[in-house]
Every structure is written in C-alpha cells, then in structure tokens.
Design brief:
Largest sheet of chain B: 2 strands, antiparallel
Helix content of chain A: over 70%
Number of domains of chain A: 1
Oligomer: heterotrimer
Strand order of the largest sheet of chain B: 1-2
Structural class of chain B: mainly alpha
Largest interface: B-C, 48 and 57 residues
Shape of chain B: globular
Order of helices and strands of chain A: HHH
Distance between the termini of chain B: 112 Å
Order of helices and strands of chain B: HHEEHHHHHHEEHHHHHHHHHHHHHHHHHH
Radius of gyration of chain A: 17 Å
Low-confidence stretches of chain B: none
Strand content of chain B: under 5%
CATH class of chain A: Mainly Alpha
Largest sheet of chain A: none
Radius of gyration of chain B: 31 Å
Number of strands of chain B: 4
Chains: A mainly alpha, B mainly alpha, C mainly alpha
C-alpha cells in the first residue's frame, strides 16, 4: 500500500515543510511563531528520515531512532524556549524579537 | 721662556664667576665686589707681566716676534686633524688684547662698585662681569679657530645676560634678545665659514692656517665656486661672523639697542672689548686673507668704510648720549676694519695692519673713558637725553676734564693718542685706495663734530632745571676715569710699529705730513662747527635739519634699517614661514595621520551593522548563502 | 649574577616592593630607593666597562650572557653592552631617577603610577642591553605599552585622544619594525643552518642587496616613528602636551632615543648596503625636520608644544648625524641623544613645576617669573642655553660634532644639507629667547604670582642632577667621546666598506 506512494512525494512534502519553516523563521517577529517554525523544520527532517529509511533500508531502524531522538530534543527545546520567552515577556512585556535588543551596543 | 702660568689669566675670572654665581644671594655685595675686582687685579698684573716678558724678554728669531703656544690641550676630538684644543697662544696681537681686556675690565670692575651700588642684582652683575672677562680672555688667547668660536659664543651670551641685566624692563629684554639673535645669525655664517675653511685646509689651528709658506695658504685657492675660490667664500663667511660681533653694516642693528644695559657694561663690552672681536678675528687670520683671498679682503675694506660713514652720519642726529657713543663705536670699528682691508702683509705694506691694532688699543681706552664718563653724567642727572643736560662742567669737574680729553683724543687732535693711530690708518688708506681715503677723511671730520656736539651739549650750553643738584661721582668712579684719561692721552707714544706688526718685524715709520695736516684740519673744522652750533643755545642746527628735512629724518631714524629687519623677521619669517609651518604641521601632516585613523574608524562603523545580534538576520544570510552556494555547486558539477 | 640582568631585575623587584607598600609615602620611598640603586648600578657599569676596556678587552660587546629562550625558533635572551649602550643606560638611569622625584606629589593612584613608570623603565633598560633582536623587540613593546596608561589616566587636557594617537602611531611603527626584523631573521643564515636573531651573528652575514633595500625602509621608519622622524612625528606634540611631567621626561628623554638607537643599531648596522643606497631620502627628511621643527616651535604658545617641536628638531639632528656615516657625525649623534635626553627632561621637569604653580602653560599668560621663582627661572635659562648650543653645555658638543662630521663628507649633497641644518641654530635661539623673554623676564603679569614659592628639595634634587649632567658633558666632552668612540668603529667600518 505504502509502496504505491513514491518516495518523491515524501521528499516534496519534507522540502516544502522545511522551506516554510525557514521562511517563517526568517520573517516572523513573534518568538512563538519562530519557535513553531523551528518545529516545522525539525518535523520536515523527521519525515525525511522516516521516509528514506523505509524506502532505502527497510531492514534497519536507524532513521526511526533518529526521529525519536529529534522529537525528544524538540520537546525539551520547546520547554526551554518557552521558559525564555515567558521571561522575556515579563521583562519587556513583548515577545517581538526586534524589541529585545538591549545587549546591542 | 715658560708662559704656562698665562692659563691663570682666564681661569681666575672663571672661578670667581662660579663662586659668585653659585653663592649669589648668600654673600654680601661687598664681598662679591672685592672678589671680582681682586681676581681681575691678579689677571691684570699677570697680563702686564706677560706683556713685559713677551715684548722685551722673549726670544726673537731674525728680529721677529714669535708665536708661542703657552699651553694646549685637546678638548674635543673630531678627526685626527680636526680637533678643538683649549690653549693659550701668545703673539703680539693676543698679548696686546690681554692688556686691553684686563685694563678695561679692571677699570669697569672698580667703576661698578660705585655705579651699581645698592642695586638688587649687584652680585649677579659681578658674576656676569667675571663670566665675560673669562670668555673674552679665552677668545683672545685662542690657539685655533674653533676655540675662538667657543669663546665667541660665550662672550655673546655674557653680552646677552648683561644687556638684559635689568630684566624687568621690557626694553632691556627686547634689546638683549635682539643682540643675541642678530649676532647668532652672523655666527651661523661664521660656523659655516669655519666648516668650509676646515674642509679646504684640514686644520683649525691658527699657526698652521696663517703659516705663509704652509699648505693652507698655498693650496686653498684652487677650488672654484660661483666665480670665487672656496677660500674666498670661507673667509667672507667668517668675516660675516666678525661683522656681526663688531656691529658692521648690515648686522649692526643690535649695538645701539644694547645700550639698555648698565653703562659700565656698555663701556666694557660694547665699546672696548667684545665689539672689536671682529677686528681681532680678521687680524688673526690676516695672512690668509691677504695672500690667498684678496677679494675677501676688499669686501672687508669696503664694509668697514661704508659702516664707518653710515654710523657717523647717524651719530650726528641722535640725542641719547649713549646711542651717540654707540654709533661712534661702530664708526671707529669701521675704521679699524678698513685699515685691515687696505693693508698688505709684511714690511711697509703692513702699515694698515699695525694701524688697525694701534687704533684698536687707543680706541679701547678713550671709548671706555667716554662711556664711563657718560655713565657718571647719567648717574648725576638720571637721564640719557642730551636735551635735558647742559652746563654740567660746574658740577662734575673731573668728569668734565676727562671727557674733554677723550673727545680731543677721538677727534684726532695731536698729541693725543687718537691722532697717531688715526693718522696711520689714513696713511694706509691713502696709499691703497683713494676712495676709502676720502671717506675716512670725511668721517674724521664728522667724528670731531658729533663728539664735540655731545661735549658742548652736556657740559656747556644752557643749563636746564635739575630736580637735584648734580654732584660728582664717588672716587671709585672717578679713579677709572682718571686712569683711562691718562692712558688715552699718552698711549699714542707707545711704539706700536716696533711691537705689533703683521709679520712680527719692527717697522720704521715717520709721520706723513701730507696726510696728517688735512686730517688735523678736518678735525679742527668739525670741532669749530660744533663749537658754533652748540656752545650756546643756537638756532642754526634746527635750521639745517629743517632744510635737509628729508635726509635728516632718514638719518635720525637710522636709515630705517631696523624697520627693514622688523619687516623681514616679523612679516616674512614669523608670519610668512613659521605660521604656515605650524599650520601645515597641525593640519596637513597631522591631518594625514588623523585621517588614517578616521578612515579606520569609518570603515569599522560602516561594517559593524552586519553584527546586529539578530539571529534572524544571521539566519537569512546563512540560508541565502547556502542556497547560492548550492546553486553554484550544482552548476559547477552538473554543467 | 650578571650586572646587565641586574639592571632589569632591580626595577622588577621595585615594582614588586611597591605592590606591598602601605601608603603613598612608602610607595615613593620604595621607588626612590629602587631607582637610586639603579643609578648606582649604572655608575658601576660605566666604571666596570671603562676598566675592562682599559685592560685591553677588545670585544665588541662586553658582559655577554646568553640563555636559550625558544629553542625551536632559536630565540635567545642575549645581553651585552658596548660603549653606546652603556652611555644610554647611564642616561636612562639619570632620567628615571629624576623622574621619580618630579612625580613626588602625584595626586591620584600613586601606586599604579609608579608601577607603570617603573615597568616602562624596565623595558627601556632591557632594550639597551639586548643583543638579540627578539628580546630587544620584546622590551621595546614593554616600554611602549605602559605609555598608554600613563598618559590616558594621569595626563591632562585631551589625554584620551593623545594617548590613543601616541599608542596607535607607535604600534604602527612596531608593525613595520616587526616586518623588518622578521625579514632580517629570515635572511640571517643564507648558507643553511639555524636562523638567528643575534645582532652580532647577523652582522657577519651578507644579506642580498635587494632584500636589504626592501627591509631598510621598514626597519628605519619603524624605529624612526619613535625617534620623531618627519612626517611621522605628530604624536609627539600631542603626546607630550598631555602626558604627566615624569612621563614627558622619560618619553622625550629616553623613549625617543630608542628610535635613534634602534635605527643605528639595527637598520644601519645590519643593512649597511641599503643604508648607503637609500640614506639620501632620509637625509632630506631629517635635514628638513631639523629646520622645520625649529620653525614650528617659534609659533607655539604652549610651553610643552614648544618643547615638543624643539624635540622634533633635535631628534631630527640625531637621525641626520646617524645617516651621515662619518665617525664624527655618528659620535655626535650619540652625544646628541644623551644631551637632548637630559636637556628635554630638564625642560619638561621645569614646565611641570611651573605649571604646578601657575596652572597654565600658555606663555602669554605668564611673565616676570624670574623674580618670584629664581631657582626655576635660572634652571630654565640654563636649559635654554644648552638647547641653543652654548659652549660649555652639552648641546654645543653634540651639534658641533654632527656639523663638523657631516661637513667632512666628500659629497656636495651632504655638505649642502649640513648647511641647511646649521641654519636651525639661529631659529633655535629665536624660540628659546622668545620663551625666556616672555615667560621669565619683564614685569610680573599677575599679582598672584607674587605668592609663588620657589622649588622644594625634591624639585631641586632632580633639577640640579640634570644641570650637572649637562654641564659635565659640556665641559668634559672628551670623556663621553672616549666612552663611545671605540664602539662606533665596527659600525662605521661596515658602512664604509661598501664605498
């Protein structure tokens, strides 16, 4: 069943997600949105890992391991990032990155 | 004969200078005065003793006086041939100068006890006097031209210190500064001249230089530069140095201003000793001037003649008695310089040389006397202006008589000493160059006129109202006057032609009446005119000056030479060179350096925007570069 | 212990002692003691050197000590002295000694001030005793860096600007120098074998002419910047004007001499062919700067600026003499280094003391000071007379040796430049007398000045020391000439061999 779907489709979805993530990361000013963009990037990578693993080396699970690893890191990263964002919000009453520049100069 | 002790003559004043100078405020004025005078008395006695030994006891070779090196030690080693030695050279002119310097210096030391009494800087004054005496002795006994230059500078600085003695008076400060800088300017040429001379001859030593058969004289004239031999250039440059010290035109402007110093200083430095250093310098190098650079000698003659005329004309128009005497000094030194210029070397040709030295001697005596007399007058009436004087003969009998004797001497009235020396100069000029002869004759008349103008204005004429009755100076001041008057009157009888000649051999001279009689008559005419004009209040001088208004104003303002100098130094050097250089340094040179700094700063500023600290910008750059690179690689690899 | 290493060790120990000082009094006491020991040491060194030479030791460098420092690069800590270095060491110890006394009453951060000052002097001493180029460069940097702090913290006026300018320009000099030194190092062993930084070893080697011509400007300008070579002198007026008294003294007195000494010892000695080929460019520059500096000084109103420009003129004469390549002129240049060092230290000390009293350095705001502070006034006049070259004081000897030596040069070009340089003696007289006339003589301009006090003992001590040194050199120059004369021979021989 799944064999009917060519690998390219997965890769196209992964690439699209990746670039959407990159675009969001570069253009958004809201820290939450940036964090979400990063999650998109990570997930696009996950899709690639899983898909490539399934199509090229169906007999081992390294891609899956990596995916789970990334999910774990992404979770902890999200926790830290949101903690930072909350602190920033408390200090500046804003989560716009352009306002958070007191380290400059 | 052993003359080594002569080293003491300069050393004693030097020690006294150090002692008084270091102890300045800690010792009593009376101690400073007695030390200074006592030390000078020892030098005085030693000088006379040396003169006696040298002229009458020393060994002559073929009847000629020899040059004796009494002492010589290397002081500074340049190369094997060029080195500055410090030593004592005795020959007729240096021995004669020792007499002149020690006599006048001693008299001035004595005179100053009375004149400077109660002055704040009494000790300072005596220490400077000793410094001057030391330097002047060192100058006259120099064994080599560089030693002379060393002491030349030292007398310059002593002169500077003494002119600026009243250092709280702006005019004195300005005068001392002017004197130093103008003479320094001339000294620069002197130094260059020494360098050129030493480059040509490879020696500084006087004896080697002036050896008439030596290599210095015979080979020096060979290299040409701008139409004249290098030797001529060197000697002209050296003469400029001499002209600076001796206040010859056009570097004379410091001398009249130097009268800001105390009067004894004017008598010692600016009348009798330091200002004749230029004459002495030319006399010292005379053989080399005469034999290998006659062109330079001609320059010397004309500069001297012109200066003497120039100064004499100015002297007739001045009212400050010390300035009259200053211009008179300049005029008389012009005489001596001319005499050297018209002289030949050896035998009867050398009469100008001998006359010059003779006049130097007699002039030192009578001019010092005139200055000291003027000092006594100023001391009595507290003014320098002859318009505020008159009728002083009643109050100052001794000063009056001595001053009159001095005036007669300088006017060339026989049998006073000035007659003999001036007559010899005229004889030399008469045989050598008629133009110079007539100039000198005219100057002789002018001299008699302005000196007696001075005399009659001070001691006769109408008496103005004095605030205090003038009174005669104390004995410490009148004694030098009497001593010098004696010397001025009788020194004409010293047989100079037997003692001081260009080649050391005695000369046979007799008065040439065809020169002497016109000279005497010109002098008498000058005296008579002065008598008519100034014996009593008279309107003739004013009328004459009215009629010659243009010329008179020109002469009265010293022919505007000072203004010319002011223009050159202030407008051109100061504003035209120095200010632009200061500006250039601050703005162009420093501007370039600052510019480099500014450029660095600017570059840093313009690129520091890249480091904004915003992750998103970094990310953008990162991603776009990655994409560009990717595209580049793809194209590179696949196409 | 080698006496030369002691010369570096004593200042270091003094710094260590100062770290433990309890208060200001102790700090300056330690500094004074340390620097007095240093002065005595250098006197002993002079004595030892002279006895050694009289005993017939004809080595070029005496008291040589050698330790390997970086084995892989063959850098050594090599020390040794000849007559020139001995003279320079004596100069340095006199000036640091007097410098300590003139900063007797520094207002703030006493301890740090003395520490920086003495570190600076350590660098200078180290520089003069080094024979190894690397050690030399190291000490050179040690001497230059504390300058920034000393001017930036304890200076006056626009001190940050001046400190920055001075340090940057000197650093630029170091950068050029580094290129030159490394270049020399790279060519120090043409026949294979280990490369070396040792001066004496390199001097035996013949570096190819085109390499020399490339390296000479780097080395000469690199040192020349420190020696106020025109047109790289502009750090000096600002730097000196802002620096505190003792620093000006040390800087103008000694540090600027590092430039002349280095130019002589490294640029001229190690690159003789290039020196002969290229000297005309630098001769024109220095000859002009002699006159130019003097003219620049005529127009200044700030005492320190006047002295800074005068230094440009006098230091120009040092490099001028060195480039003339006659033994007399070079001897003169070395004496000029010493003479100018003492003279300018005297001037800066006096300016500092006058400034401390009148709180201004503008000459037209002052006048008639001779009457109220005669001691300082007389000292200033003596310094001035030495500066304008009065016989009997040190300036005359140095100038005459340079002039006579230069004029003996066979080329007309050199002689013409000499005459141009000689004109500076008149201009020097003008600016010196102008200052003396306005500042010291004439009527007293300001009634406050009547209450000024003359010098205290700690002010008199350095001034008398300096004046005595000036007079000693001026009266007995032959002693100094004898001290340095022999050591010049190898350099002059090496330079003349090419002709």
């Amino acid at each position: 069943m799944i064999e009917n779907i060519p690998l390219q489709y997965f890769l196209i979805v992964g690439t699209l997600m990746f670039f959407i993530g990159v675009f969001g990361f570069l253009t958004r000013r809201n820290l939450i949105t940036i964090l979400m963009s990063v999650e998109l990037i990570l997930n696009s990578v996950n899709i690639n890992f899983v898909a490539v693993n399934r199509y090229l080396y169906p007999n081992n699970l390294h891609g899956h391991f990596f995916t789970i690893f990334i999910i774990a890191i992404a979770a902890s990263e999200a926790a830290v990032a949101i903690a930072i964002i909350i602190n920033i919000y408390r200090k500046f009453s804003s989560i716009n990155v352009e306002n958070v520049s007191s380290m400059k100069n | 004969m052993n003359f080594t002790y002569t080293i003491l003559i300069p050393i004693i004043p030097f020690i006294i200078f150090l002692f008084i100078g270091l102890m300045n405020s800690k010792i009593k004025p009376s101690l400073a005065a007695s030390l200074g005078t006592g030390g000078m008395l020892i030098s005085f006695i030693l000088s006379y003793y040396t003169a006696f030994l040298y002229f009458f006891k020393s060994v002559k070779v073929d009847g000629a006086y020899q040059k004796i090196i009494a002492f010589n030690a290397e002081w500074l080693h340049f190369t094997d041939k060029l080195h500055i030695d410090m030593g004592v050279l005795l020959d007729p002119i240096s021995v004669m100068m020792l007499i002149v310097v020690s006599t006048i210096s001693l008299m001035v030391h004595i005179y100053s006890i009375g004149y400077m009494k109660g002055d704040d800087g009494f000790n300072r004054f005596y220490s400077f006097l000793s410094l001057f005496s030391f330097s002047m002795f060192g100058l006259v006994v120099a064994t080599n031209i560089f030693q002379m230059y060393v002491f030349w500078e030292l007398v310059g600085v002593s002169s500077f210190l003494l002119i600026g003695y009243y250092y709280q008076k702006p005019s004195a400060v300005a005068a001392s500064k002017k004197a130093f800088i103008v003479t320094r300017f001339a000294d620069m040429f002197f130094l260059i001249g020494i360098l050129v001379l030493s480059f040509v001859t490879d020696t500084f030593d006087f004896i080697t230089l002036t050896d008439t058969t030596g290599s210095a004289i015979t080979q020096g004239g060979s290299i040409l530069f701008m139409g004249m031999s290098t030797m001529t250039w060197a000697l002209i440059l050296i003469f400029i140095g001499g002209a600076g010290k001796s206040a010859m035109f056009p570097v004379h402007i410091w001398l009249p201003d130097a009268m800001e110093g105390p009067t004894p200083v004017s008598a010692l430095i600016h009348a009798a000793t330091m200002v004749v250093a230029g004459v002495y310098l030319v006399a010292r190098l005379f053989p080399i001037f005469e034999i290998s650079a006659p062109d330079a000698l001609m320059v010397v003659a004309y500069v001297g003649a012109f200066s003497s005329l120039f100064a004499a004309i100015i002297a007739t128009t001045q009212f400050d008695i010390k300035r009259v005497l200053a211009y008179s000094t300049m005029s008389q030194i012009g005489y001596m310089i001319t005499a050297l210029g018209v002289s030949g070397y050896g035998g009867h040709e050398g009469v100008g040389y001998m006359a010059s030295m003779f006049h130097l001697f007699t002039h030192a005596m009578f001019k010092a006397l005139l200055f000291l007399g003027a000092g006594a007058v100023i001391h009595a009436v507290h003014t320098n202006l002859m318009t505020e004087m008159g009728g002083l003969r009643k109050y100052l009998p001794i000063t009056h008589i001595t001053f009159l004797l001095a005036c007669l001497t300088i006017a060339g009235v026989p049998p006073f000493s000035g007659f003999f020396s001036k007559d010899e100069i005229l004889v030399a000029a008469y045989h050598h160059d008629k133009v110079i002869y007539f100039i000198q004759m005219f100057v002789a008349g002018l001299t008699a006129f302005y000196m007696f103008r001075l005399y009659f204005r001070i001691f006769w004429n109408t008496e103005p109202h004095y605030h205090h009755t003038p009174h005669e100076a104390p004995f410490s001041m009148t004694f030098p006057l009497m001593f010098l008057a004696f010397a001025a009157v009788f020194s004409g009888f010293i047989p100079f032609e037997k003692l001081v000649t260009s080649d050391g051999l005695p000369l046979d001279l007799h008065t040439e009446w065809e020169v002497a009689i016109p000279a005497i008559s010109v002098g008498l005419i000058g005296i008579i005119i002065a008598f008519v004009f100034y014996k009593k209040e008279s309107s003739i001088p004013d009328k004459i000056s009215q009629n010659l208004r243009f010329f008179y104003r020109w002469a009265f303002n010293k022919f505007y030479i000072d203004e010319l100098y002011m223009f050159v130094t202030h407008k051109i050097i100061f504003n035209g060179v120095s200010r632009p250089i200061a500006w250039f340094d601050r703005h162009v040179v420093d501007g370039t350096m600052t510019g480099i700094g500014k450029a660095t700063e600017f570059t840093a500023k313009s690129i520091k925007g890249f480091q904004s600290g915003q992750v998103q910008k970094y990310g953008f750059v990162f991603v776009s570069s990655a994409i560009l690179l990717a595209i580049a690689f793809i194209f590179y690899w696949f196409y | 212990m080698n006496i030369l290493s002691l010369l570096v060790l004593v200042p270091v120990l003094t710094v260590a002692a100062i770290l433990f000082a309890k208060d200001n009094k102790q700090t300056r006491l330690f500094s004074a003691v340390g620097m007095s020991i240093q002065l005595i040491l250098s006197a002993i060194l002079v004595y030892m050197y002279v006895t050694e030479r009289q005993a017939g030791n004809m080595d070029q460098m005496l008291f040589v000590k050698d330790f390997v420092w970086f084995e892989s690069l063959n850098f050594h800590y090599t020390v040794g002295v000849d007559g020139i270095s001995v003279a320079m060491i004596a100069l340095t110890s006199v000036i640091i000694f007097t410098g300590v006394f003139t900063s007797w009453e520094v207002l703030n951060l006493h301890r740090e001030f003395f520490i920086s000052l003495i570190i600076l002097s350590t660098g200078v001493f180290g520089f003069f005793i080094s024979i190894d180029l690397f050690t030399m460069f190291l000490f050179y940097e040690i001497a230059v860096i504390p300058m920034y702090l000393l001017i930036g913290i304890w200076g006056s006026g626009k001190k940050e600007y001046s400190a920055m300018k001075l340090t940057l320009m000197l650093m630029a000099g170091s950068a050029l120098l580094m290129v030159g030194l490394l270049g020399i190092y790279m060519h120090s062993a043409p026949d294979g074998g280990p490369l070396t930084m040792n001066l004496l070893e390199i001097a035996k080697v013949k570096i190819p002419l085109d390499v020399q011509k490339f390296l000479f400007p780097f080395t000469f300008i690199g040192f020349g910047i420190l020696g106020a070579l025109f047109p790289f002198h502009t750090w000096s007026p600002d730097g000196h004007a802002s620096a505190p008294t003792a620093v000006s003294m040390l800087h103008a007195g000694v540090l600027m001499k590092l430039g002349g000494y280095g130019a002589f010892r490294v640029a001229m000695y190690l690159l003789p062919d290039a020196a002969n080929e290229l000297s005309w460019i630098f001769l024109i520059l220095t000859g002009l700067s002699v006159v130019y500096g003097a003219f620049g000084a005529v127009f200044q109103k700030d005492l320190k600026y006047i002295n800074a420009y005068s230094s440009v003129s006098h230091c120009g004469l040092i490099l001028f003499g060195i480039l003339m390549v006659t033994k007399t002129a070079m001897t003169g240049a070395i004496i000029q280094m010493i003479s100018h060092g003492i003279m300018t230290a005297l001037f800066f000390a006096l300016i500092g003391m006058i400034y401390g009293r009148t709180h201004t350095r503008m000459i037209n705001e002052m006048g008639g000071l001779m009457k109220v502070i005669p001691f300082l006034g007389v000292a200033y006049v003596i310094g001035g007379l030495a500066s304008l070259g009065l016989p009997g004081l040190s300036g005359f000897v140095a100038e005459m040796m340079i002039f006579v030596g230069s004029y003996q040069h066979p080329d007309v070009f050199h002689r013409t430049l000499t005459i141009i340089a000689i004109t500076a003696i008149v201009i020097t007289a003008v600016y010196i007398l102008r200052v003396v006339g306005i500042l010291l003589l004439g009527p007293i301009k300001n009634d406050h000045y009547l209450e000024l006090k003359d010098a205290k003992w700690w002010e008199r001590l350095p001034i008398i020391t300096l004046i005595l040194s000036i007079a000693a050199i001026g009266v007995a120059p032959f002693l100094l000439v004898d001290l340095i004369g022999f050591s010049l021979d190898p350099v002059v021989e090496k330079l003349l061999m090419i002709h």
